[in-house]
């Protein structure tokens, strides 16, 4: 029986590439205006804000207060992406203020993630990823007043390297997917310590999480309707040390509409947990209590059935899009400002996710989340957009030569377009030094 | 006895019937036997006459017991027929043995024929527990039948669920004769046992289904046992709580957080706490230390004991436990002759108790690793009673192997009692990381010889241990149950403080503001606290206060008939 639970939410909205970036291209304005769909992004944000962010956060604030009155601890953790914070600053300051209020209660922990909710952790060159994590950490600190100590990589993407790097960046906890092949048959309901390291791993209990995230309003589910009371008893009777629940925040009011009773579920859950004898805790309170050691192997994420990286980098369209994004890295860094920001928006995982082609259960989920009619349609527009963007940058930098591709251990590492960029890449990884001998020939 | 209208009510408390399955010196498998023994002898010392009524558990068949208890057969027997749910008839024949143990009268209920004897006289205390309880009820009924007004007890005290039906039967049988005797029911440990009404009914155990008054929140109301049984959903402990005039438990915390939520809120205003106690004595242990190790200095005693583990030959009583430990003996410091490799000098954390999940041993070994990271010279000695939780044992073995030079597991319950006490005395700190614990006798034993305790804040432990961080009278630390980090931090504090008290370091590393004298003070506080609250003499006093309350409740019950 578990007597502790971690309940957390992923809060994220992407900046979507314009739906008709190819069919009716724009040639004037800043990169952000030309390639990204402000109208659509704002419309989605405002809808979700109205249906989920504001009401759900109010429920949580009410319940934290009620808990204080009744001597219960009501605690949640949040992982809010930087792009969402950007959008909230532009289009919904009231939500930002509610988040600040949550932070001030002391009952809510904010995790660190990648600022742009990107898949950059899968790149061979992790410079950009580290920068995005650092940016996010600083933003959470300045906007929400908390220094995150627990890390959650985009979509729980986890490899041995991301865990190791997170430890090196000073995080003491890491949320990952409680995938069977990762846990090798062990229960997700424990705090693990990385084998050979110090960082604590918190595997998400995806079965219990998905009961809320996916099955809550499914009338053909044999457990329908799911009540807070029933759910609390499931958590209580799960064997182990603690249960980690982590779902999209949009579950409350957007994925399941308020009419399904999801808001009441959220409202009553803390009380029912208390009644069942389950204490709500925060990651920072449990990371110093690892129970087992775990050797992290392979790639895992919380997406779809395969729970790996293939939802973002699994087909040729995604690879091509990713390649184009990576080619634009160094020029964007050189040009800075709006170019760099626009480029980072391109790196957001959602723009990769729209290119997922598999049908069936996961496919349906993808099309639900997609801003496009089909993956093909998405590819056409996104690929055109990112390439136009790249060419615009190259023009601005006066580059007319071929790019230089760096390879490391047989894998493509980085792309440079001129000498400055070339030297910059060399600085990132001294082991690439032997590439230097090719530079002169390349620039001839 | 005093006559009030047509009823007889005890006017004072001078004669108590204890109904129990365990009594130290006769048959005992856990803390219940000690509690009943010391409570009974404690009451006897205060001039009360106490009769302990229990199943024979076959002890009367053993000459040693016969002579020690001065057993002789009572000229009384009872027989009858019970009807099973299968509509078959099951006869029984019971006899009685009367004896004496340290001033306490003992009545053992035994079988007079093979089918009855097989149940009542089986050696294992909890073999056939349901049946033993049912037959004990029949026996108690016969004993009540022989009573004259002079012999009527002034109070019946039933211990744990096995004694509920015998206790209720005694109360009801007396009430039928218009004698109102208070019934006190003590929950030492909730077992959550249930049965359908047939089990308790006149067909089987022998409760007549007649209306009688029971306490319901604010008044006595007329109810039949079958109605109360159904109200209790067939749960014997809940039924016992409805029927009893007073419910007691071993700690306030256990009563409030476990017993009352299980049995229902109606128990709240007729409840009382009777702690357990200990007879361990610091003076005796000091003498012992001198005799065995030639020194009273804890540091010295500890060093010698840890170095002498290679002379302690202790084999686990449980074959599988022994087998598992043996297979890993090299990484656990167990030698080929079942003695143990000595541990080097250092601060000692002691654990005693069954090796089960409830005791939090898994949490302990994990926390301990964190302690060793900071204080590499710390030792942990686990004096575990083997159980059949083999998965947990395997986990312990794996974890202990990682810190082989710091830990020894001794999974045996046959350690020499003197050595057992000395280890308590020599320890720097006692660890009781139980996930739940009604009372926690281990904590008061350690404290009685001046060893502070790091315990989970649960059940009785949170009443026994005063936290040093919040109290001048602190006797140790209270930590969150199941929390590895919280236990690690308090164990580490204890080790640092203990070291400082022995002049081997400062108190800078502690997580709270402490002075070098803190630990010595905690040791004194511990001894004082046990003397004040957890001696059997003070426990008997608590019991008397509760009995007074029960008598008052019984008088109210009597007045309900008027």
UniProtKB/TrEMBL annotation, chain B:
Q: Which Gene3D superfamilies match?
A: Glycogen Phosphorylase B (3.40.50.2000)
Keyword Glycosyltransferase included in the entry's annotation: yes
The Glycosyl transferase family domain, residue ranges: 345-489
Provide an example Pfam family for this protein. Glycos_transf_1
Is Transferase among this UniProt entry's keywords? yes
Q: What UniProt keywords apply to this chain's record, in alphabetical order? A: Glycosyltransferase, Transferase
User: What GO molecular function terms would the record report?
Assistant: glycosyltransferase activity
Return the protein name.
Answer: Glycogen synthase
Q: Which residues form the Starch synthase catalytic domain?
A: 15-259
């Amino acid at each position: 029986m578990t007597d502790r639970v971690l309940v957390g939410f992923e809060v994220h909205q992407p900046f979507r590439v314009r739906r008709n970036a190819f069919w009716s291209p724009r040639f004037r304005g800043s990169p952000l205006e030309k390639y990204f769909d402000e109208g659509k992004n704002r419309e989605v944000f405002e809808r979700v804000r109205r249906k989920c962010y504001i009401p759900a956060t109010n429920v949580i604030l009410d319940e934290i207060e009620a808990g204080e009155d009744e001597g219960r601890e009501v605690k949640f953790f949040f992982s809010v992406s930087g792009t969402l914070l950007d959008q909230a600053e532009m289009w919904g300051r009231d939500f930002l203020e509610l988040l600040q209020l949550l932070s001030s209660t002391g009952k809510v922990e904010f995790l660190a993630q990648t600022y742009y909710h990107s898949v950059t952790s899968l790149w061979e060159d992790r410079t950009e990823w580290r920068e995005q994590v650092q940016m996010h950490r600083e933003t959470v600190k300045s906007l929400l007043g908390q220094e995150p100590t627990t890390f959650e990589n985009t979509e729980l993407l986890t490899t041995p390297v991301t865990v190791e790097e997170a430890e090196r960046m000073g995080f003491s906890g890491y949320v990952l997917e409680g995938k069977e092949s990762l846990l090798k048959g062990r229960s997700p309901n424990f705090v693990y310590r990385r084998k050979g390291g110090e960082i604590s791993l918190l595997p998400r209990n995806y079965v219990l999480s998905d009961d809320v995230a996916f099955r809550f309003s499914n009338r053909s589910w044999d457990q329908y309707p799911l009540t807070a009371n029933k759910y609390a008893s499931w958590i209580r009777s799960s064997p182990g040390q603690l249960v980690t629940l982590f779902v999209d925040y949009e579950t409350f009011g957007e994925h399941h509409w308020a009419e399904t009773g999801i808001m009441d579920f959220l409202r009553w859950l803390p009380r029912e947990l208390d009644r069942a004898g389950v204490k709500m805790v925060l990651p920072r309170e449990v990371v110093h209590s690892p129970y087992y050691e775990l050797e992290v192997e392979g790639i895992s994420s919380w997406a779809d059935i395969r729970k790996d990286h293939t939802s973002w980098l699994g087909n040729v369209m995604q690879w091509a899009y990713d390649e184009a994004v990576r080619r634009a890295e160094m020029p964007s860094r050189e040009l800075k400002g709006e170019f760099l920001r626009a480029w980072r928006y391109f790196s957001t995982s959602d723009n990769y996710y729209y290119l997922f082609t598999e049908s069936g259960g996961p496919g349906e989920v993808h099309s639900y989340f997609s801003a496009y009619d089909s993956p093909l349609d998405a590819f056409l527009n996104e690929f055109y957009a990112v390439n136009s963007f790249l060419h615009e940058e190259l023009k601005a930098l006066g580059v007319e030569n071929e790019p230089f591709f760096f390879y490391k251990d047989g894998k493509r590492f980085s792309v440079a377009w001129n000498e400055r960029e070339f030297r910059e890449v060399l600085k990132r990884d001294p082991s690439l030094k032997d590439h230097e001998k090719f530079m002169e020939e390349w620039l001839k | 006895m005093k006559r009030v209208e047509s009823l007889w009510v005890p006017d004072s408390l001078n004669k108590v019937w204890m109904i129990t399955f365990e009594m130290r010196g006769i048959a005992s498998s856990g803390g219940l036997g000690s509690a009943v023994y010391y409570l009974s002898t404690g009451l006897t010392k205060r001039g009360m006459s106490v009769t302990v009524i229990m199943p024979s558990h076959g002890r009367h068949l053993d000459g040693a017991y016969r002579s020690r208890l001065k057993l002789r057969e009572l000229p009384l027997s009872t027989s009858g027929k019970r009807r099973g749910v299968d509509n078959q008839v099951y006869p029984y024949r019971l006899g009685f043995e009367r004896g004496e143990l340290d001033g306490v009268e003992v009545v053992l209920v035994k079988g007079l024929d093979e089918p009855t004897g097989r149940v009542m006289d089986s050696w294992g205390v909890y073999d056939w527990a349901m049946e033993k309880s049912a037959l004990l009820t029949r026996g108690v009924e016969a004993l009540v039948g022989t009573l004259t007004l002079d012999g009527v007890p002034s109070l019946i005290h039933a211990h744990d669920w096995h004694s509920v039906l015998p206790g209720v039967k005694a109360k009801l049988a007396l009430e039928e004769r218009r004698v109102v005797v208070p019934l006190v029911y003590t929950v030492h440990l909730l077992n959550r046992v249930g049965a359908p009404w047939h089990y308790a009914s006149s067909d089987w155990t022998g409760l007549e289904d007649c209306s009688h008054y029971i306490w319901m929140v604010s008044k006595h109301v007329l109810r039949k046992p079958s109605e109360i049984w159904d109200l209790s959903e067939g749960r014997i402990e809940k039924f016992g709580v409805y029927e009893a005039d007073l419910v007691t438990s071993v700690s306030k915390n256990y009563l409030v957080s476990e017993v009352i939520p299980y049995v229902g809120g109606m128990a709240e205003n007729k409840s009382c706490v009777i702690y357990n106690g200990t007879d361990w004595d610091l003076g005796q242990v000091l003498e012992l230390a001198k005799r065995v190790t030639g020194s009273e200095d804890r540091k010295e005693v500890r060093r010698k004991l840890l170095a002498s583990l290679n002379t302690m030959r202790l084999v686990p009583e449980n074959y599988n436990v022994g087998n598992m430990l043996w297979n890993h003996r090299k990484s656990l410091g167990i030698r080929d002759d079942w003695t143990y490799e000595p541990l080097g000098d250092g601060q000692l954390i002691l654990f005693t108790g069954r090796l089960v999940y409830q005791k939090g041993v898994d949490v302990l070994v994990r926390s301990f690793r964190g302690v060793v990271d900071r204080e590499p010279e710390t030792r942990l000695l686990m004096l575990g009673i083997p159980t059949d939780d083999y998965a947990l044992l395997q986990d312990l073995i794996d974890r202990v192997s990682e810190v082989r030079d710091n830990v020894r597991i001794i999974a045996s319950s046959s350690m020499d009692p003197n050595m057992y006490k000395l280890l308590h005395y020599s320890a720097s700190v006692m660890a009781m990381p139980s996930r739940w614990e009604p009372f926690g006798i281990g904590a008061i034993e350690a404290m009685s010889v001046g060893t502070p305790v790091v315990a989970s804040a649960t059940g009785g432990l949170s009443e026994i241990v005063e936290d040093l961080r919040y109290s001048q009278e602190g006797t140790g630390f209270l930590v969150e149950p199941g929390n590895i980090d919280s236990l690690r931090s308090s164990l580490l504090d204890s080790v640092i403080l203990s070291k400082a008290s022995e002049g081997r370091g400062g108190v800078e590393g502690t997580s709270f503001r402490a002075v070098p004298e803190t630990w010595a003070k905690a040791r004194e506080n511990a001894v004082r606290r046990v003397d004040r609250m957890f001696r059997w003499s003070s426990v008997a006093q608590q019991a008397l206060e509760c009995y007074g309350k029960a008598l008052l409740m019984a008088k109210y019950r009597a007045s309900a008939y008027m």
